[in-house]
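DM from R.C. (forwarded with permission)

"hey, sorry to bug you on a friday — could you get me a structure for this? deadline for the figure draft is monday and I only need the backbone to look sensible"
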Amino acid sequence: MILLKLTPMRESRITDAFAVWITGLPASGKSTIAAKLIAQLEARGVDVALLESDELRKIFTPHPRYDPEERDMFYRQMVYVGVLLTQHGVPVVFDATANRRVYRDWAREQISKFVEVYVECPLKTCMARDPKGIYRRAREGQSETVPGLQATYEAPRKPEVVLHGDRDAPEEAAQRVIAKLADSDFLSAVIPA
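My reply, with the result:
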C-alpha cells in the first residue's frame, strides 16, 4: 500500500537518512530517552529532526479529539513529514505513542532505514508518573481515549530495540539505540568524515 506519492529527487549526493520511532505508553519515558538520543547524536555531529507528537498536534490538530479518525489523519501527516525529511537526508526521531501498530508500520514501509524502539513500562508506573496529567484526567472522567487505559495500545511485535522505562537509565537507553543504528550501518552516511 502506498500512502503518499512523492516526486523523485534529482540526482544528488543526498542519501536517505534513518528514522527512529520511540513508542510506548504515555509517561513511559519516551521523551526523556528521545532527548538523550538527540543529544548523543548531535555530539557525534548528526543533526536530527525531532517529530514530537504533542508539538505537531498544536499545528495539525490544535483542538484534538483523539478519536480513531483523527488519530489516523494525524499519524499519516506525521509519517509524511518524516518521509520527506529522511528522503532529503535529514535523520528523524519520532517521539510518539502511536497506539496502533499500523501508524508505525506506515513509517516502516516508507523509510528504508527504520528503527522501532519500544519503551516498555508498566501502566501502574506510567500512571504514578503522569507528568502531563493524562491519567488524572482519565480518572476524573475528562478523557476517554488514553492509550493503554481506555484506548488500546498495540505494542510492537518485533521492535529493533526494547527499553524498560521503569528501570533503564535514559543515557544508557539512548546508547543502546545508537548502538543499533551503528550496527545497522545507518550512521555511516551521516557522520562527518
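R.C.: lifesaver. The first strand starts at residue 19 and ends at 23.
me: no worries. Strands lie at 19-23, 49-52, 92-95, 114-120, 161-164.
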